[in-house]
């Protein structure tokens, strides 16, 4: 790890621990133990935890260890509703504002997913998938929209990952992303909205199933 970006790199590693369940919802994020495991000092670890707290993945507690966030279904459902609106708005604006470089980057990500889906670690592929959606928000060239989209995407990181794993299917994923990309390349706002809706429309239902499965496992 390089010193310049150490807190963010630590945050990335902890984020992956949360997604894989190594740090489960409600679990303590022990500063000393995690710092020792990653071979870093407690100061950048503390900064990394603050990054995750800002994203909503960790909850800070006075005089006690932070814990991994355990949002309710209602909290997740409300955030999903906002994220879906942001995804569609990003795509609509990107149809008008995306540059050739923006579209080239989206094509590169889509091609990479198509070529390497079956040979890439599911968590790595999930992060590549999320980079596609982040790139669309950036292609809107609306800083407020991109920032808000990023905040909601980070807040829903674990929920999105669990649903992505549940519905992991190369042909479906590649077809959906290709349809979104082609709509953006055609500058077709209606087609872009429809493609986003097709891709993410089942997300509320999928997340409900994940929550119900977790409740069953915990019973």
From TrEMBL:
Protein name: DNA-binding transcriptional regulator, GntR family
Gene Ontology molecular function terms on file: DNA binding; DNA-binding transcription factor activity
Key words of the record: DNA-binding, Transcription, Transcription regulation
Pfam families: FCD, GntR
Keyword S-adenosyl-L-methionine: no
Keyword Hydrolase: no
Species this chain originates from: Roseivivax sediminis
HTH gntR-type domain span: 4-71
Transmembrane segments: none
InterPro entries named among the record's database cross-references: GntR_C, TF_FadR/GntR_C, Tscrpt_reg_HTH_GntR, WH-like_DNA-bd_sf, WH_DNA-bd_sf
Origin superkingdom: Bacteria
């Amino acid at each position: 790890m390089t010193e310049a970006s150490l807190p963010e790199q630590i945050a990335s590693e902890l984020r992956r621990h949360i997604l894989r369940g190594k740090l489960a919802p409600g679990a303590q994020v022990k500063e000393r133990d995690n710092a020792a495991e990653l071979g870093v000092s407690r100061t950048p670890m503390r900064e990394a935890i603050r990054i995750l707290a800002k994203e909503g993945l960790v909850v800070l507690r006075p005089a006690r260890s932070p814990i991994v966030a355990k949002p309710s279904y209602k909290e997740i459902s409300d955030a999903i509703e906002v994220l879906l609106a942001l995804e569609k708005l990003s795509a609509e604006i990107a149809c008008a504002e995306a540059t050739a470089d923006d579209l080239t980057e989206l094509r590169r990500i889509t091609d990479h997913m198509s070529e390497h889906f079956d040979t890439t670690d599911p968590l790595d592929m999930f992060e590549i998938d999320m980079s596609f959606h982040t790139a669309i928000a950036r292609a809107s060239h609306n800083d407020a929209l991109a920032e808000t989209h990023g905040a909601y995407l980070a807040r829903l990181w674990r929920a999105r990952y669990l649903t992505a794993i549940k519905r992991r299917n190369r042909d479906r994923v590649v077809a959906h992303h290709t349809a979104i990309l082609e709509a953006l390349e055609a500058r077709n706002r209606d087609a872009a909205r429809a493609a986003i809706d097709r891709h993410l429309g089942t997300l509320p239902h999928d997340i409900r199933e994940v929550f119900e499965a977790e409740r069953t496992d915990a019973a």
